[in-house]
Amino acid sequence: MNKQKKKGFIIVYVLIILLVVAVIFSFFLGQIENNKDLNDNLLDRKQLNYDMLSTNNLVLEEKYDLIKDFMINTYSGKSEDQARKEFSISYKDKTYSFILVYLKETNNLELDDTFLLANKRTYSKKSATLLHTYLKADVNPILDFEGPPTYEEADEEYDKVEFTNEPIVKDELIIKDKSKDSEDIKKESDNNKDRSNDEENDKNEASSDVLENDSSNENEDTSDKEKIEKDKEEDIEILDHGVINIEGDLILEDDFTFEGILIVKGNVKTNGHKLNIRGQFIGHYYDNDDIKIIRDKKVTREYIANIDDLLDFYTYAQKFNN
């Protein structure tokens, strides 16, 4: 009886030991399997990340012109539907889709005014990945609309710009008061008329031969008067659009509205008059209520012929979302 009891206890102990061994063995097998899955997932994720980087680099190479054109269109103020673009490429016999979006304002100031290049989420059997690439553009100061660049800042880049028409270069530009010039023209015209009448009265007292000579002189005086008036009209004609490069000062004796690219190396002297600029202004920044600058990309683009050569982009940041 005692022998049977001992034998029963031994069997129970052996079973318990076997159970513990089985549990431990099963645990280690599970850990090995988990580690294998983790390793496989990690390897798979690394492969996906590598593929994403590869396709991203391929996109930047193959779609360079497309991306650049998109940036140019965005910076030049084209329609809003061009602020987003989709395209695809082939890599390892697979098609990868990408999206390009202009980020004007975000919750992260560092990402404001950047372009997001992202692959549509790519899946494998065990993982998925998404690569965000942020692109920034180096823009020529002629086209930079964050603030008017000074002449010194834009001088080097200005030499790279080809304009659609030849810029007007002036040592100094004085915007005259048209009303005053008109009054001066009228006053001088009246004076010439009075002098002409006086001369005509004197001529009436002369002989017929002298009258003929005086008549000839009168025609010459009239011709000279018309020439003076024409010259003055040319003086008060103001170029109000295009490209003007002023080496010296811009002096206002009247209000002046200009559309295009205005470059002033010297100072702007408003003398209490209004200066309104739409397009781009290059010169010293003025905190002056008399000067109003509206930086208009469309207007600026009209006067620049080689805008494609004045913009380049680079990778600003990258981030994986696995």
Give short descriptive properties of this protein.
6 helices; single chain; 14 strands; six-stranded antiparallel sheet; alpha/beta
In short:
Helices cover 44% and strands 27% of the residues. By secondary structure, it is of the alpha/beta class. The strands form three sheets. Strands 1, 2, 3, 4, 5 and 14 form a six-stranded antiparallel beta sheet that branches.
Helix/strand layout:
Elements: H1 2-62, H2 64-75, E1 84-91, E2 94-103, E3 114-119, E4 122-123, E5 128-139, H3 151-158, E6 168-170, E7 173-175, H4 178-204, H5 208-236, E8 241-246, E9 250-252, E10 256-264, E11 268-269, E12 275-282, E13 291-295, H6 297-302, E14 311-321
Parallel strand pairs: 6-8, 7-9, 8-10, 9-11, 10-12, 12-13
Antiparallel strand pairs: 1-2, 2-3, 3-5, 4-5, 5-14
